[in-house]
């Protein structure tokens, strides 16, 4: 037994003798060295898991490239699937182009409700005047 002699190392997963050992990442929760093949398969497994996320509204799990990022006006975090994105977009357009109380189509002039009115969306002039008379 010489000064630089090495004991043979064995892969922790496939139990084969390893000429070059690879150290597993801590999030894999594997102790001991790995061979090159097992290291690559573990790497693929954890990489594919990071490419899948759930839709914020419906919870359907999809690949990240298939999910849509919400518009900044919606004040949302996370990703949406195509159907939820289309629903939210249509809802947002209706909220911006129709009065929230009487559902009349809004023209150029739109009125934003006061915070203590607890209304979401915009109002026409008549509804804004009625709410102002009632609430103030």
List the defining traits of the structure above.
two-stranded antiparallel ribbon, single chain, mainly alpha, 136 residues
Short recap of the structure:
The chain is mainly α and 136 residues long.
Q: Strands, helices and their partners?
A:
Layout: E1 9-10, E2 17-18, H1 36-50, E3 52-54, E4 61-63, H2 82-97, H3 125-135
Antiparallel strand pairs: 1-2, 3-4
Describe this protein's structure.
It is built from 3 helices and 4 strands, in the order E-E-H-E-E-H-H. It is mainly α and about 140 residues long. It has 3 domains: about 10-50, no CATH class; about 55-95, no CATH class; about 100-135, no CATH class. A two-stranded antiparallel sheet has the order 1-2. Strands 3-4 form a two-stranded antiparallel ribbon. The protein is rod-shaped, with a radius of gyration of 29 Å. The termini are far apart.
Number of domains: 3
Total helical elements: 3
Strand order within the widest beta sheet: 1-2
Q: Quick one: biggest sheet? A: 2 strands, antiparallel
How many extended strands?
4
Strand content: 5-15%
Order of helices and strands: EEHEEHH
**Alpha-beta classification:** mainly alpha
């Amino acid at each position: 037994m010489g000064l630089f002699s090495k004991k043979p190392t064995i892969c922790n997963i496939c139990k084969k003798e390893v000429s070059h050992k690879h150290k597993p990442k801590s999030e894999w929760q594997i102790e001991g060295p790995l061979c090159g093949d097992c290291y690559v398969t573990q790497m693929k497994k954890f990489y594919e898991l990071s490419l899948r996320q759930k839709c914020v509204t419906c919870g359907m799990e999809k690949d990240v490239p298939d999910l849509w990022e919400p518009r900044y006006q919606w004040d949302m975090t996370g990703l949406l699937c195509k159907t939820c994105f289309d629903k939210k977009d249509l809802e947002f357009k209706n909220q911006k182009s129709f009065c929230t109380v009487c559902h009349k189509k809004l023209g150029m002039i739109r009125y934003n409700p006061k915070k203590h009115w607890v209304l979401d969306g915009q109002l026409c002039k008549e509804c804004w005047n009625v709410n102002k008379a009632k609430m103030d």
